[in-house]
Every structure is written in C-alpha cells, then in structure tokens.
Design goal:
With 204 residues, the protein is an alpha/beta fold. The chain has a single domain (7-197), classed as 3-Layer(aba) Sandwich (Rossmann fold). 35% of the residues lie in helices and 25% in strands. It contains 7 helices and 8 strands; from the N terminus they run βββαββαβαααβαβα. It has a 4-stranded antiparallel beta sheet with strand order 2-1-4-5. The longest helix is centred in the last third of the chain and has 16 residues, at 172-187.
Length: 204
C-alpha cells in the first residue's frame, strides 16, 4: 500500500469473517483529504462492520487499511484520537442538556474549559439551538438530535468524521439541512465518510 499524504483512507482487500460467514469481502478503495465519501449499500450489506474496522473498534480478518496515517491493525488507538464518529443509534445523553452534552464530550476529547465554551457557543449558534440550550436533549426532535450529534463529533477538529446512516428516520427537509452541515465540514478540510442506503443521498 502506497503512502500518499493526500489519501486519508486507504483500504486494500479488507475482509471480516464471523466464523464461516463473510460480513465484509475484500473491499478496496481510497479516500482523498477533504472528500465526502459515500459508502452505499443495502441494509445488512456490511457497511457498519466495515466502518467499525476503519475506526479501530473491530479487528479485520485480513487485508490492509490505513486511516489518518495509521494502520488499523497496529495503531487503532491513534486512529480513534484523530477521527470523529456518529453511530446509527443516537449517542448523546438524553438526560443531559444540550450544553451539558457538548461540555461532556469536549472533556472526553481533551479540550480545555475555554475551548469547550468557545465551541459550545459556536455550535449552539450555528445549529439555532439558543432557545433550547438548557433543555434536556431527550426532549428535542430527532432531526435536531442528529444535527447536534454530528456537530459534537466534530468538536475536537478531527481529520476524518465517520457517519453511519446519519439521516435515517428524518424528514427530507432535515436531511437536506444535515447535508449542508456535511458540506460545510468538508469545505473546512474535514474528510467525511458516510454510509447510506439512500441512492439519492449518495449522489449528493
């Protein structure tokens, strides 16, 4: 596998087996820095399994993969420090407020109190959540939750953000707004890897 600084994800023959079942079969692709990469497939096609290998939380059976300059087999922890991740299931805490969630995850990513405050103020303004900043996240509509979750995954300015079916269950207008956030992140230099089973969404 060639070491190309413009390629932030390099995958060659990556395979995941569960016993005799092949969940991911020898996939090969590359992703450029700042690219929005759509990983399209039907439900059950192995998209989430492939993503879990790339973010360092599932060991591949065979093949090669390099993410953010690190080998998935030997430097999984380094990968985790350099990426953001938004899972299919809403990952923020329903029993914390919007501000408390941002503060909590900023702390997990090692940001200073001052940086967390700056990021919190900016995110709340950008998402138009000023009137609900002190409300419990569990009371927010799904679309707002998803946009907040995406923004929190970017709070530490990762090189790459991985989004697993991020717009599932939201209405078309909210989906369009979500993709505007994705494009903004990409324009600021973040590589976006997004799984989807929506053909029209993959064409964005």
């Amino acid at each position: 596998m060639n070491n190309n600084n413009n390629k932030v994800i390099q995958v060659e023959g990556l395979t995941k087996m569960f016993g005799d079942f092949t969940a991911v079969n020898a996939i090969t692709f590359e992703v450029d820095k700042g690219e929005i990469f759509g990983f399209l497939g039907a439900n059950g096609a192995g998209k989430t399994t492939a993503m879990k290998m790339l973010i360092g939380i599932s060991n591949p059976t065979s093949g090669k993969a390099n993410v953010a300059g690190f080998d998935v087999f030997t430097h999984a922890e380094d990968i985790k420090k350099n990426i953001g991740y938004m899972s299919q299931k809403f990952a923020l805490y329903d029993d914390l407020t919007v501000k408390e969630n941002i503060t909590f995850f900023g702390g997990i990513y090692g940001l200073s109190k001052q940086r967390i405050k700056e990021k919190s103020d900016a995110l709340i303004k950008e998402l138009g959540l000023q009137n609900v900043a002190n409300k419990l996240v569990g009371a927010l509509p799904l679309g707002w939750k998803q946009k907040l979750s995406f923004s929190v995954s970017l709070i530490h300015d990762p090189k790459i953000v991985f989004l697993d079916e991020p717009t599932g269950g939201v209405d078309p207008i909210t989906r369009r707004q979500f993709w505007e956030l994705i494009y903004k992140a990409a324009n600021q230099g973040t590589t976006v890897f997004v799984t989807t089973h929506y053909m029209d969404e993959a064409e964005y």
